[in-house]
User: What shape does this take?
Amino acid sequence: MPDSSPNLAWSGAVLREPQGRGRLLPVPEPAPPIARVIEAVRREAADAVVLRLDCGHPRHVRHRPPLSSHPWVLDDEACAQRVGHRIECLRCGQRQLPEHAEPYRRTAEFDEHTVPAGLRRAHTTKRGVWGRLVVERGELPLCFDPPLAIEVVARPGEPVIIPPELPHSVRPRGPVRFAVEFLRVRSDDG
Ligand SMILES: [Zn+2]
Assistant: This one.
């Protein structure tokens, strides 16, 4: 998808010199993980569970020391106690739209004159709600506040994915026509 390598495009402009070589290579900064709430735990194996997070992503957790040490995974009761607690989601930091996210609403189309003031100020989608900034004409920079702290530009055919609950604002700087779609993952298992 066109939105898959924004982290390389943004603050990845850091240049470092690899040891022993006389040239500079771009070093992308890793996307920060985002803390999400565990909604459910499903057992996959005696030493592995899948967590359903409130962002809509699954997270696999295994107890296979020394590589991966999470002894609580072995115990059903300890797993159940994790529900409602937070755990870091790497995919949210990478702004990966969850596989089963479905659009359920779309705003009217706006241009550089009709952008609602609320979109120019820092705002967020609600828990579990993803946004997709779709540009029909021109381009529209979208700035994420920390923890993401990146600017990404939406263009025709290159929508920007907006993870739930992360503050962001649009920064029109020329003619543009765009809309925002809202998506979520329907949870049908307990
Ligand atoms: Zn996530």
Q: What stands out?
A: Residues 34-93 form one domain. The pocket of zinc ion is lined by residues 36, 53, 55, 57, 89, 91-92 (CB under 6 Å).
